Amino acid sequence: MESTTQTAPISTKRLWTGRVLTTLIVLFMIFDGVIHIMKPPAVVEAFKELGLPLRLSVPIAIVELACLALYAIPQTCILGAIFLTGYLGGAVAIQVFAGHPLFSQTLFPVYFAAVMWAGIYLREDRLRSLVPLRR
Fold first, then answer.
1. Helices marked H in 6-76 — which ranges?
2. Which of 122, 94, 121 is nearest to 107 (CA)?
3. CA 9 to CA 128: how far, in whole Å?
4. Going residue by residue through the chain (135 aa), what tens digit of pLDDT does each one get?
5. What distances in angstroms separate CA 49 from CA 35, 44, 45, 99, 100, one per listed residue?
6. What single string gives the DSSP state of each residue in 75-134?
7. Torsion, Cα of 122, 127, 129, 134 (10° steps)
8. Under 8 Å CB-to-CB from 51, ≥6 apart: which residues?
9. 73, 87, 114, 129 - which has most CB atoms within 10 Å?
10. Is 99 left (phi over 0), alpha (psi -120 to 50) or beta?
């Protein structure tokens, strides 16, 4: 039996704001995944500072880009966001383990995840129906 719940149409402004936020997230994460594969000196130094072996750089990039692919496809964007939230949670854990400052480095993945979810929330009726914000 189909649901008969009707949702209000998405405003053009809200839809485009969501699309822009999503595009920014996708572009940043593509860049991040590619540099993990290429391993420029900045990545080598960051892995050393975090106490991670550089051999993990490519597998981490593969996981990130696979989750990102799901996020970028409209039909699987919510599943992709769930997987990316887990990925970003791991980034927070690594920052805490490395002893980095809370607000300047450790919470960056949390802020990033908030923008990621905001992008979907603004453009997806499916998510707004699951998580309704009320005044």
1. 12-38, 41-50, 57-72
2. 94
3. 11
4. 444 455 566 789 999 999 999 999 999 999 999 999 999 999 999 999 999 999 999 999 999 999 999 999 999 999 999 999 999 999 999 999 999 888 888 999 999 999 999 999 999 888 888 888 776
5. 16, 9, 6, 10, 10
6. GGHHHHHHHHHHHHHHHHHHHHHHT--IIIIITHHHHHHHHHHHHHHHH-HHHHHHS---
7. -50
8. 97, 98
9. 87
10. left
Entry field: residues in the chain: 135
Q: Quick one: tokens of 86? A: 């887990």
Residue 1 CB coordination number (10 Å): 3
What tokens does 91 get? 């980034």
Instruction: Tell me the two tokens of residue 133.
Output: 């914000």
